[in-house]
Amino acid sequence: MRIKPVATAVTSLVAAGLGAGAAAVAAGRYGSRAALRPGPAGPAGFGGARLRVIAATDGQVTLAPGAAPALSPETYGLTGDGVHAVVGPVLRAESWDGGRLVRRLERVTYGSLDPGTRVRLTPKVYEGTPASALGVAYEDVTVDGPLGPLPAWYVPGARGTCVIAAHGLGGTREQTLAALPLLRELDLPVLAPAQRGDPGAPPPPGGRGALGHTEWPDLDAALHWALRNGARRAVLYGWSTGATMALRTAAESAAADGVAGVVLDSPVLDWRAAVRALAGRSGAPGRPALPAPLRGLAVLAAGEYGELDAPLAVPEAPSLLLQGQADDVAPPAAARAFAARGGDRLLLREVPDGRHAALWNATPRAYEETLRRFLTPLL
């Protein structure tokens, strides 16, 4: 069934005889459900700029820009109908208003960047499986989740510490692929499970998520799987709502003693700010934008789900918190306040140009070096 844009839905409700107040409340609830709906709609909160290809030749792609995020530095995916490519830094920006933007073209994964092709930026630089995207051998395994079987990728490694990777809202296991080359270099086994709402996984109750607060038992099940299948300890590595799952698992799992460390990339620590931002996003399937005056109602409606107020404890295990200063979904102020509670147990590293769950993209080499230094003592 086709989902109507929010503005159209509100108009229809009023036309049907509902008062403006009732229509606004309904729209707020609609917006909160859209913001919290899981599924592969692209990493939530990135809001990739809409672009048009002018030309792609000689290792460069020329784009007609649609919004300032197209100027985001370093490495991003470029995706559209039937095409995926990877672009590097901005080489030239000319007459921004209606002008042209030239970025380095790293590779075309599939399809063709023909003139006129409509594309958008995405943090996802790899598509497929570890083998098809990176040439990394892996096994398809199944984690017995609390709602049913969860398909997972397992990449073997010689170390006794297994990294368990949890993607964020709107993402898929492919979000974890950018970190895989470094994890393989460190010879760490990696388990990347699907979560409720992902393709091949059970749907979430009520068709909505809770920003990691109700989904964390899926990651807990993956932790138990790893410890039963040869791992002595595990590092929980989560992006966005996957980071929330990691925090809840480290605090509440019966196997928490097996957690050697926690990596938090763009953790959602202020759910109100996240719902407000996600309700205002447009362009992602199933997540039409809510008009600005109604976003506060989306936050109030999301507050009806009491689990969002569950407190998040600083892990007992050593933890690394990676935060983008340009993140408008997970505010830097929330990360700084959380890190201050952690003392010596929690290391905060901020990325000046980092947007939500796109920190590797902004500074790949610095990101990987920070991750390497954190993980090495935990091997």
The biggest sheet amounts to: 8 strands, mixed
Mean pLDDT: 85
Low-confidence stretches: 1-18
**N-to-C terminal Cα separation, in Å?**
49 Å
> What are the secondary-structure elements, in order, as H or E?
HHEEEEEEHEEEHEHEHEHHEHEHH
The number of helical elements comes to: 11
Structural class estimated from helices and strands: alpha/beta
Secondary structure: helix percent: 25-40%
Report the strand count.
14
Strand content: 25-35%
Shape: globular
Task: Describe the structure concisely for a colleague.
It contains eleven helices and 14 strands. It has 379 residues and is α/β, with parallel strands linked by helices.
What is the secondary structure topology, with strand pairs?
Elements: H1 6-15, H2 20-36, E1 50-57, E2 60-64, E3 76-80, E4 83-94, E5 100-110, E6 118-122, H3 130-134, E7 139-145, E8 148-155, E9 161-166, H4 180-185, E10 190-193, H5 216-228, E11 233-239, H6 241-252, E12 259-265, H7 271-279, H8 295-302, E13 319-324, H9 332-342, E14 346-351, H10 359-362, H11 364-375
Parallel strand pairs: 9-10, 9-11, 11-12, 12-13, 13-14
Antiparallel strand pairs: 1-2, 1-6, 2-5, 3-4, 3-6, 4-5, 7-8, 8-10
